[in-house]
User: What shape does this take?
Amino acid sequence: MGRLIVIEGLDGAGKRTLADELVTALRAEGASVRTLAFPRYGKSVHADLIHEALHREHGDLAESVYGMGLLYALDRRDAAEDIRADLRAYDVVLLDRYVASNAAYQAARLYQGADGGVVEWVRELEIVRFGLPVPAAQLLLRVPASLAGARAQQRAETETDRAKDLFESDDDLQTRCAKVYDQLAARSWLSHWYTIDGAASVDTRKLATDLLLVHET
Ligand SMILES: Nc1ncnc2c1ncn2[C@@H]1O[C@H](COP(=O)(O)OP(=O)(O)O)[C@@H](O)[C@H]1O
Ligand SMILES: Cc1cn([C@H]2C[C@H](O)[C@@H](COP(=O)(O)OP(=O)(O)O)O2)c(=O)[nH]c1=O
Assistant: This one.
């Protein structure tokens, strides 16, 4: 069995960039790696509905914290068998966002902390009820909300189809979300968290060797 490793952080933190660099570093160490990003836009009807709701379609759907949380969870539920198969076939399954994104964002939307009701609702729904695999380790790519916002803004201006969505446009939400992520990491929510300073340059070679020492899932 391989290791399920998750990258978490704010919109624009640099998760996708880190994932790309980490794949290269892990392969250089001889590991086989499979990557997947949530939400699975273009592959899951739930993810496509999320995208549309975050771009102001589907009436008041995006206003419902639990409704949106459920769509994210259903997208992952549909991917659970594939993740389990990948864990049997690869040394590392690297995910760009996973269950903790749902915990952090929905808690932030409700002005709750990591000890609040919605974080436990996410755990109960996704881990207990849907039986999603628990990550071997979670990486919090930590950057100030202002820097993540600036990077997301730059990306929106330079890449097509990356106009900021409802969550990305809400600076206060991102600031609260950063706090919930810190709390989840401090509580080792679901598993151990590595905190990475995303404002500095990341030593992906060292990170890769550390991750290969993590117990298999
Ligand atoms: N370490 C970094 N320094 C400067 N810019 C970065 C860094 N990491 C990512 N970026 C840029 O910031 C933007 C957001 O990065 P991305 O990896 O897409 O973030 P995320 O996946 O967390 O939303 C992209 O335009 C990317 O090129
Ligand atoms: C995966 C996931 C994302 N989110 C949020 C985080 C982001 O603000 C938003 C979209 O995810 P994101 O991966 O940032 O997509 P994009 O490619 O559009 O930047 O959804 C949740 O609230 N719960 C989840 O389970």
